């Protein structure tokens, strides 16, 4: 294995482990579709279409992964989702 291949392999490993955290939003009987959509657009920078699709997945499947990334980026976003009244956690 050449040096270039070893470096590429290390980079791939770092990329794979750096983004293995997810924010999951859970269904509830409190929040409206509009509130969930607006919150996902504001907090997670979703497009209106993305936010609507996520809200439908949450409604019909009970949960949806709405964001993936490194923990330090997800923590403040998850906190904002919780403060907005959504049920969310990082896994």
Structure description:
By secondary structure, this protein is α+β, with helices and mostly antiparallel strands. The chain contains four helices and three strands; from the N terminus they run αβααβαβ. It has helices at residues 3-18, 33-44, 48-61, 71-83, and strands at residues 21-26, 63-69, 87-90. α2 crosses α3 (48-61) and α2 packs antiparallel against α4. The longest helix has 16 residues, at 3-18. The protein starts with a helix and ends with a strand.
| SSE pattern, N- to C-terminal | HEHHEHE
End-to-end Cα distance, whole Å, is 35 Å
Question: What helical percentage do the residues reach?
Answer: 55-70%
Largest sheet strand order: 2-1-3
Question: What would a concise description of this structure say?
Answer:
By secondary structure, this protein is an alpha+beta fold. Helices cover about 60% and strands about 20% of the residues.
Describe the structure using short key phrases.
91 residues, alpha+beta
Explain the layout of strands and helices.
Layout: H1 3-18, E1 21-26, H2 33-44, H3 48-61, E2 63-69, H4 71-83, E3 87-90
Antiparallel strand pairs: 1-2, 1-3
Helix pairs in contact: 2-3, 2-4
């Amino acid at each position: 294995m050449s040096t270039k291949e070893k470096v590429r392999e290390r980079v791939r490993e770092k990329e794979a482990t750096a983004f293995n955290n997810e924010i999951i939003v859970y269904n509830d009987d409190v929040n409206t579709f509009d509130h969930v959509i607006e919150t996902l657009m504001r907090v997670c920078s979703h497009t209106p279409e993305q936010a609507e699709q996520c809200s439908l997945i949450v409604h019909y499947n009970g949960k949806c992964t709405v964001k993936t990334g490194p923990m330090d980026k997800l923590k403040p976003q998850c906190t904002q989702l919780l403060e907005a009244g959504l049920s969310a956690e990082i896994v």
